[in-house]
Amino acid sequence: MTTTTTRSPLGTALRACFPALTATFVLSLFINASMLASPLYSMQVYDRVLTSRNLGTLVMLTLIVGVFLVLYGVLEFARSGVLARAGVQFEGTLRHPLFETMMKAELSPRHRFGQQIIRDAETIRDCISSGTAAIACDLPWTPVFVALCFLQHAYLGILSLLGAIVLFSLALFTEFYTRSSVERTNALANEASRFVAAALRNGEVVRGLGMGDIVLDRWSCRQSAMVDAHSTLVERGAAMHSITKFARMAVQTSLLCIGAWLAIEQQISPGAMMATSIIMGRALAPVEQVVGQWKRIIAFRSAYRRLEELFQALPVTAAPTALPTPRGDIEVENAVVWPPAAGRPSVKGVSFSLKAGESLAIVGASASGKSSMARAMAGVWPLREGQIRIDGAAYSQWDQNRLGKHIGYLPQDIELFSGTVADNIARLAKVDEAAVVAAAKAAGAHEVILRLPNGYDTPIGEGGVALSGGMRQRVGLARALYGNPRLLILDEPNSNLDEDGERALAHAMAQMKAAGRTVIVVTHRPQLLAHVDRIMVMAFGKTLACGPRDEVIAKMRGQRVVVAHDRATASAAA
Question: Model pTM?
Answer without folding.
Answer: 0.71
